[in-house]
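I trust your eye. Have a critical look at both lines of this record:
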Amino acid sequence: MPRIRLSGILVPHITPFTREGELDTEALRTCVRFWVDNKVSALVPCGSNGEAQYLSRQERRKVIETVVDEANGKVPVVA
């Protein structure tokens, strides 16, 4: 795996939820597209906004997989 030099704006971003408290992956995809389109340097899902510790392992995995999928190699994902 090639080494990536990180610099610039690395976004430890929010994790959207529905009113029922479920992960809102469509809203997350919308956010990722916005951040990528606005030239962030990297995304940091479950980074430091506090919700990660309350998510199950499967939920954290889903968040990271969704971000990686939507970023589609356009920016690094630090997870």
